[in-house]
Amino acid sequence: MSNVPGGSKMRKVTLVAIVACLMLSTVSSADVLREIWWGGASIDAAIALVQGDTPADQVDIMAEPTWVDIADNYVAKVSGYALAPADGEYTFYVASDDSSRLYVSQNENMADAVQVAYVDGWTGSQDWAALASQKSEPMSLTEGQLIAFWAVMQEGTGGDNLAIGVAGPGIEGIIVLPDDVTYATHPSKANKPNPADGDTGIVDAVLSWGAPATIEEPSYSVYFGADPEAMELIADGIAETSVNAGSLGDGLDFETTYYWRVDTNGEAGQVWSLTTLHGRPVIAKAQGAAVAPGGDAQLICEATSAAAGELSYQWYREKVVMMGFVLNDVALPEGVDAVLNVAGATIDDEGYYYCVVTNENGSTTSPLLFLDVQVGLIHRWTFDESADGVTIPDVVGGADATLMNGTGAAVIADGQATLANDGSQNSSTAAAGDYIDLPNGLISPLTQMTLECWTTWDGTDSIWQRVYDMGTSNGGEDVSNGGDQTTWFCVCPDNGSRVLQVEYRRLGRDSILPVTDNGKLAAGEEVLITQVHDDIAGIVKVYINGTIIGAYKAPAMLNEFIDNNLWLGRSQWG
After folding, report:
1. Which strands make up the sheet holding 12-22, listed edge to edge?
2. What's the pLDDT score for residue 489?
3. Of 76, 201, 393, 558, which one has the greatest count of Cβ atoms within 10 A?
4. What's the CATH fold of domain 12-176?
5. Alpha carbons 260 and 190: distance in angstroms, whole number
6. Is the CB of residue 108 less than 8 Å from the CB of residue 148?
7. Rounded to an integer, what distance in angstroms lies between the CA atom of residue 449 and that of residue 568?
8. DSSP secondary-structure letter at 535?
9. 351-359 and 161-167 as β-strands: parallel, antiparallel, unpaired?
């Protein structure tokens, strides 16, 4: 049993810079562009970064310039345009966690923007009134006026947020700049390219774009080519917002980056890019198999290719043990089709396989596929007897468990192990409490596992106790000093909120199973807990007395576990 220390919120270091051009407008809009650079810096370094030449690590299209808790340690830039709907005075706001600076230009030139508001420290999300400095002086704008703004935000550990707000004619209170007033590109230019800028895997280059918001009768000239400095004119003076630039094998080469630009009424547009699909095979389906001993199994690797010509297949066994020698990447003479048939599978056939698919342009290797020869029940501890009062026989697999009798009052008899803990014991001082230690290494060799445990919980008010806890702690074997860096799973009768908790940790990242029964484990009665972990299906399910209470995507693979603390009644935490 263990009391787990509550989590504490650390302040994170995060930097965000936002750049946008604004024209408040009633015209139906688009969006804003956000660029992200990963890595933290001071507020001054953030300003220098967004004004420098370092390319962004990530580019997103957003509806509005606001977000909450997206990551740690990053710098971001948001850009966009909009049209002013009416004459009047407008006030701009910034809210952020942590510090930020907001700059606004009363024309469309970003270089003319000046600082109008800032946050030193941090505010809540969209909290416009925390600091007097968050608010700009009123600005007089005229209908249709184009202005520019940008902002920089710096964040520490903990939650992060950013919002840019506006108040003015026809606006009730203060609102985040909405998507019906912003544009990711200049409103007089083509926008929303499709394929999106930087898209890869293109087979058919049917180019389309959004019409500019401020031009009533736009005329487009479209340029396209592999050299951004020497693109060819492929359409001139068209009113349509789409043009076909070719397909693979019909004007386009495999795995080549092409550039395109749409000019509107003679004004040059932004240069966008796309990259065509490679000509190698593409794995469309890769599937392992599970079979009982003696059964016939099929492993599947289906592939397609954008290039003409036949595909060839070659299956491999990742590892074969032969006469005491380990052979790696063994080609299977019979494995020359999309389906590998394994007839009369034995335990020796169990393992990982993969397929290499080849055409005239090259080869593609499938993911590792597991053939699971299921042998049924592999371990069982009945608690019927213990010859020495310490050893608990495994009546199926021979992996005997050990009773750790810290109180001196634990008993094994009549199909039960009765632990004498009274709620005062703590896992960090394991000698003071009772628990059962299963042998190391029982979990990591498996790919599918069903664990059944009959338990009677006495319902003590002590929280964060364990029915079982399996994996390893930060301190490793036989240590309960926390598990916020390691991989393990547990069943806890009461998590402090009077709720049964099934939890996985993968290298410290927690995944708590959502359960349908929001109460704690039933006290004073025998309960059957069944946990199913299936790496092949990628799912975890938990049942109480045969009724499922929750399921989710498996947070970790069983072979990722360092399984040297497999405990009944003890926690990785202390």
Report:
1. 12-22, 147-157, 100-105, 114-119
2. 98
3. 76
4. Jelly Rolls (2.60.120)
5. 12
6. yes
7. 17
8. T
9. unpaired
Question: Cβ contacts of residue 68 below 8 Å, gap of 6+?
Answer: 125, 159, 160, 161
Q: ω into residue 187 within 30 of 0, thus cis? A: no
Class of domain 391-568: mainly beta
- Report CA-CA distances (Å) from 46 to 13, 339, 357: 12, 54, 47
Sign of the torsion angle spanned by Cα atoms 142, 144, 148, 149: positive
CB neighbourhood size of 436 (10 A): 22
Residues 18 and 33: their CA atoms lie apart, in Å, by 9
User: CA nearest 4: which of 480, 374, 335, 441?
Assistant: 480
**How far apart, in whole angstroms, are the C-alpha atoms of residue 503 and residue 345?**
35
At the fourth CATH level, the homologous superfamily of domain 285-373 is Immunoglobulins (2.60.40.10)
Q: What is the pTM of this model?
A: 0.49
Q: How many residues does the chain have?
A: 574
Distance CA 331, CA 353 (A): 10
**Residue-level pLDDT at 30:** 55
- Cα distance between residue 499 and residue 84, in whole Å: 53
**Identical fold, 191-276 and 285-373:** yes
Ranges in the chain, pLDDT < 50:
1-29
Distance of CA 11 to the CA centre of its chain: 21
CB 316 within 8 A of CB 330: yes
Residue 39, helix vs strand vs coil: coil
C-alpha–C-alpha distance, residues 388 and 402, integer Å:
10
Which pLDDT does position 168 carry in this prediction? 94
Predicted pLDDT of residue 414: 86
Token pair 């003071």 in the structure block, residue: 432
Instruction: Report the distance separating Cα 59 and Cα 33, nearest Å.
Output: 7
Parse the chain into domains and list their residue ranges.
Answer: 12-176, 191-276, 285-373, 391-568
Class of domain 191-276: mainly beta
Pairing of strands 282-287, 312-322: unpaired
Please give the structure tokens belonging to residue 350.
């169990």
Which residues does residue 267 pair with via DSSP β-bridges, in sequence order? Answer: 264
pLDDT for the residue numbered 29: 43
List, in order, residues 6 or more apart from 190 with CB less than 8 Å away: 209, 210, 211, 212, 218, 220, 241, 262, 264, 269, 270
Whether the Cβ atoms of residue 163 and residue 94 lie closer than 8 Å to each other: yes
- Give residue for tokens 């956000």: 34
Are the C-beta atoms of 223 and 235 separated by less than 8 Å? no
